[in-house]
Amino acid sequence: MSTTTSTTLTFDGRFAREFEELAVPWQAEEAPSPQLLVLNERLASELGLDPALLRTPEGTLMLIGNRVPEGATPVAQAYAGHQFGGYSPLLGDGRALLLGEVTDIHGRLRDVHLKGSGRTPFARAGDGLAVVGPMLREYLVSEAMYAMGIPTTRSLAVVATGRPVRRETMLPGAVLTRVASSHLRVGSFQFARVNGDTELLRRLADHAISRHHPDAAKADQPYLALFDAVIAAQASLVAQWMLVGFVHGVMNTDNMTISGETIDYGPCAFMDAFNPGAVYSSIDAGGRYAYANQPVIAEWNLTRLAEALLPLLHEDQEQAVALAVESLGAFRNLYSTAWSTGMKSKLGLGAEARDDEAGPLVNDLLAMLEEGQVDYTSFLRGLGSAARGTPDAARTMFTDPGAFDAWTKKWLALAPDADMMDRVNPVYIPRNHLVEEALGAATAGDLDPFHRLVDVLTQPYTERPGLERYAGPAPVDFGSYRTFCGT
Question: Is 364 an active-site residue?
Fold first, then answer.
């Protein structure tokens, strides 16, 4: 039986209190033998919580919801959503709970959320559980994204439950404790709209404005301004994914946040060889969420948000649609500007470089990388050396370097800034073969490879001696790579 305990961390239950229609009170399943596997001490301190407390048996129980902190009100959140294009009017947290909100040391309201905490009323046929490997994957990749400066949910802890979980085989169970600006999603608004609850829709929008996009409150049309702010946030976010070669893998509308943070790291991966059609998710048979499709899918998801918001945009349906269409029209330019500005920086050219010069250089380069099946991350990092007059690191990645030589001549004529390149081209990303190595070892009880990889990824732009194996592409025998949601 879950009990309440006092800690130095005081929770609030704002979402549970203000949105009873979207919050089902629930308790995490009791873990038979909980063991703390990894704790993000810096994040804990940022939340105002003593890491030493969390490392105690009592603190570990709090991290998985088996001891409910003062003020916490665990709830499973309801939402709707389009999953792989198919609409479901009721999805919700099938294996997750929102413990509540905390105010961090900077005065920001943050959600503390559990993943893998057991079946809820939204679980459908699922068991509500999670296993060690996928939960450690989310910890690792979300913290790598944070270190690269990309908006993301954070990972506070992973706790092994001591409960075996059946997947393809029996695997050790675990709970992830996740932190986010909020868990409001496009699907949250879709739920209010499909139920015809305009009052709930308005309260959700007001909540999103106050929590994430406060400038919208000052606009003549606050709900349209909210929509514009979400469009801008998602255009920027997806451009940042694309710039580092990140493939989310499951861009359903219930996985698109109103805050503009990356959420849900199930079947995700970073590209090795540059491939616009890269798909790593085992459940994405049609390639809907392939690397190159991500901007298109983001726009599609935002269109679904527009449909949900129509009653707030104007009382006349036709005028509401016209306003939404006009706002949506800004997405492509916002995304293209963010992408092209980012690519200029990755090539050391800066925002002031002329588009008619930089654009063809970028297009020609990506075509060369695709044709040569060149490692995306290693090449762009190595290109910084070429800007310093030593091109071999990048040049030798091509079987036939003739095209590279011709391209480099045009690029060097624009005087690229190598230091700028090093600031935005990571040396270290969560390489797929290293992630699998670390997760395999952790599942077998050895966390050392995982901790080493996390440590490397905390400084992605700083090259350090002795870490060469973390910077290189996958070995030839690694083969095709597939990831799984873990459900």
Answer: no
